[in-house]
Amino acid sequence: MSKLMIVNCAADTSMHEGVEKRFHDSEVLATSVKKGWEQGSCIAHIHAPPTNYEAWENHTKAIRDCCPVMLQYGISTQTLEQRREVVKFQPEMMSVAVGAHNMAFIQGDVMMLHPREEIADMMKLCTDYNVKPEFEVFSIGELWMINDLLEKDLIQTPVLMTVFFGRPGGAWSPATMREFLHRVSALPEDSIYITSVTGNTHLHLETMAVMHGGHVRVGTEDEPFLSSGVFGDNPEHVSRIANVSKLLGREIATVDEAKAMIGL
Amino acid sequence: MQLESWEPFTNAVREACPEILIQFGIAAMGLPGRKKIVHLKPDMASIALGSHDFAFVDADLLVEHSRQEIEDQVRLFNDNGVHPEFECFNLGHLWNLEWLLEKDLVKSPVVLTIFFGWPGGFWSPATLKELLHRIEHLPDNSVFSVSAAGLSNVALETVSIIQGGHVRVGTEDEPYYTKGVLAEDNAQLVSRMVRIGKELGREPATVEETKKILGLN
Lengths: 264, 217
Prior knowledge:
heterodimer; A: 22% strand; B: 217 residues; 8 helices
């Protein structure tokens, strides 16, 4: 088990009612990201409107100017062409969906298919720009797709993935300990997984990830409440899981340590 | 398969075997196609509870299924006396099913086929661990059949029998009887399951008994 725990902070947007969306203003976003970094996060999972490439560039610059976190572009619903436009701003990572999107968000359902040819093209783009793909794993079926990419030599190990729990829609899975252990036991050996949970059991599953050698993603995008009815902003979510991790004997990875672990 | 083929196929089956329940395997078919063949009155027809994401031998098959579409399909079947057979490839599909149940669109019992080992983004391991995990999450009022691709299908079907589930076998799902040996025909695959069921104390249901179990008219 890795002694260090990586904290990814999904700080900027939210699928929850009444939670501030920050991706329309680079300074607001960068300030929020920096506060998370000060508490221990080393990755910022960020968004901008898909075709507003200037916003992607401005977000990236604003964050780079204020803290050294790695950037993970949350662009799993973006097309190849849209990705080409933003990859040049050189994020460390980009999100790649390896299964169909089937989400019931508050602003509407998000449905999207992801053919293997398209995924293969995205892998080539990642290789060309030295960007690490971050695979989104909502169910065990997505591991078949990752294995397919490994067999075709389209990706390098360690495989980096985010394992999701409790997101509403056809990509749902129960946010339970049982489901966590079931999913995690099916992951390829040489993988780094980051756990992202929606729902009031999120701290339980995040703690399981700490104990099980996994890593954690927290933030207002995933689950804004610290406990029932108690809203928490990003620094509070990051610092809480960082404290839990330290208590359980895992120190928090710095940006440089996390880069070495992920293979950047 | 072309839409015009459904009528002669249905007639041929009805003539050869008038009592057997017919389940149209049309999970990937859109609403317009369904409207054209629903008058043939199959006893059941398939509805996918999530987008198709398959890697079949000839080509990948990707088809989106929005909640609106699923709802429309259910309504069409309800209006025409066709019992929906819901396809469940992973736990996420149960979220969509729960949504249908909350809207009161689906009558009890819910008829489900739970799939294992089908290649593609829909895959799940054809293991007993995965089977038990899935079964635990099914709604209380569901009647499930297990369909598994791969040679572990016999083990999964057997556990389904033990767990109170039902089985789906046939050359579509897994054509090999044992390693390297193709099944002679479907009858051979069916009869093995019947023997196992009987040994384990569960008799195969007759058509009439099946209608009662599935809540068919």
